[in-house]
DNA sequence: TTGAATTTTCAATATTTTCTGAAAGCTTAG
DNA sequence: CTAAGCTTTCAGAAAATATTGAAAATTCAA
């Protein structure tokens, strides 16, 4: 590997002539994706790594990722493993090459479907399991029985609502991601909502983060 | 106000005879909800507070909440404020009473719709805004132009996918929560997935994150 | 098998987020 | 106006999470 020990330029990814503007755009996206991720409870570097692989169509090796994102080897390793587990990036080893390369799922809808499925597993399934255990034995007697029934009714209502959403999502995020897109489009039509090509800022001062 | 100054009993919520089994069930639910919340990136105590108010049909005052959940006054205050901002609990002051009482939205679908809307605002809207800024000026020239186009295409694809989902969710989570339920049911039908009126344990060993 | 090129693991460290508690701020009765 | 009763604020403590870095493990060519 022809890299001098004095080498300190971070541009491992691209040999000499880099398109700086393009790189800057990519960096903006990486930052944005990382930023969003923290709101979704996903570690920043995990999202950044994914973003890098997503915008960089050719597969990258660990070294390049480390350098472009300025993260440690250990972090890169764990992060990549996580992403592979989630199924949104894949390892690619090639004969003649010792190191592994990684590439991201490029299809947006498949990406979404995969993420949705992962979240469902982590966030919905345990809820469904747990809810049944939150009921209380009904005694059937007077006022105590009534209170208990009310409680159970509440739990049941919650349970069936979650089940409904769960069932739907299960069908729509199946494997190829087609379902998700279909669902979105179907729904859009259903309400007569046509997706505009151009975005319109209907409301500007939305939020209320207070202070 | 008939409370002696020596009064120190913590049982503000329930006078003497409490249904311990019921309380235990409620606690299980509170714990479960709190547990789930941490996976969704919501502070545990925020979720627990909401859970308590959700299972406890009558309004509760801050003191009761603090004691039942064993949290500090400050935490309770901030937490309640958050929940009120999210729109899933409401303050209720009453003449003759100095303290405030809180009660949770009891309708599950409205609850979901509200939460969905809040998340959309925090997690989707900033993404939409940010994405446009991630494009790169197309030069239109040779290979550099091609790379740039590819990048922009990717961003556009992402953008329109997010917009589609966003638009749909916007319509379906509007205010009353009816939309969400409607959507879920509609989708369920669309794929031939019939929601049973009575819960049926189709799969028992639901399985899970199987290693 | 050896050893050079990688990747993985994990204890230690850094960072971020959440919670506490005490003091300051309101509001209303008197 | 003053005081009692409640609520909010916020700096710092505590807890939870994320990241590093270097040693150990793995892999493969020779």
Radius of gyration of chain A: 24 Å
Shape of chain A: elongated
* Total helical segments of chain A: 7
Distance between the termini of chain A: 55 Å
Report low-confidence residues of chain A grouped into runs of 5 or more. Answer: 1-15, 193-211
Q: Work out the helicity level of chain A.
A: 55-70%
Identify the quaternary structure here: homodimer
Q: How would you state the average pLDDT of chain A, rounded?
A: 80
Tell me about this structure:
Two copies of one chain form a homodimer. Chain A has seven helices and three strands. Mean pLDDT of chain A is 80; it is low at 1-15 and 193-211. Chain A starts with 19 loop residues before the first helix and ends in a 21-residue tail after the last helix. The first copy, chain A, has a three-stranded antiparallel β-sheet. Chain A has helices spanning 20-39, 44-55, 62-69, 73-86, 108-132, 142-172, 178-190, and strands at residues 60-61, 89-93, 100-104. The first copy, chain A, is 58% helix and 6% strand. The first copy, chain A, has 211 residues and is mainly α. The longest helix of chain A has 31 residues, at 142-172. The interface between A and B is large, with 73 and 72 residues. Chain B binds a DNA duplex (30 and 30 nucleotides) through residues 1, 38, 43-45, 61-63, 71-75, 77-78, 81, 98-100.
What's the arrangement of secondary structure elements?
The structure is a homodimer of 211-residue chains.
Chain A: H1 20-39, H2 44-55, E1 60-61, H3 62-69, H4 73-86, E2 89-93, E3 100-104, H5 108-132, H6 142-172, H7 178-190
Antiparallel strand pairs in A: 1-3, 2-3
Helix pairs in contact in A: 1-2, 2-4, 5-6, 5-7
The structure holds a DNA duplex (30 and 30 nucleotides).
């Amino acid at each position: 590997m022809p890299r001098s020990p004095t080498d300190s330029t971070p541009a491992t990814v691209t040999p000499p002539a880099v398109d700086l503007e393009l790189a800057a755009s990519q960096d903006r996206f990486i930052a944005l994706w990382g930023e969003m991720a923290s709101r979704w409870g996903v570690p920043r570097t995990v999202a950044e790594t994914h973003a890098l692989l997503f915008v960089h169509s050719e597969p990258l090796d660990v070294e390049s990722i480390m350098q472009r994102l300025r993260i440690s080897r250990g972090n890169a390793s764990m992060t990549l493993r996580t992403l592979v587990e989630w199924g949104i990036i894949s390892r690619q080893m090639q004969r003649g090459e010792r190191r592994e390369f990684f590439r991201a799922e490029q299809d947006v809808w498949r990406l979404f479907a995969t993420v949705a499925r992962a979240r469902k597993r982590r966030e919905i399934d345990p809820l469904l399991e747990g809810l049944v255990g939150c009921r209380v034995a009904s005694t059937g007697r007077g006022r105590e029985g009534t209170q208990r029934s009310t409680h159970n009714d509440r739990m049941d209502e919650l349970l069936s609502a979650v089940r409904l959403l769960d069932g739907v999502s299960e069908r729509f995020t199946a494997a190829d991601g087609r379902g998700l897109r279909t669902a979105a489009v179907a729904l859009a039509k259903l309400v007569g909502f046509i997706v505009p090509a151009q975005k319109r800022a209907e409301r500007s001062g939305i939020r209320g983060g207070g202070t």
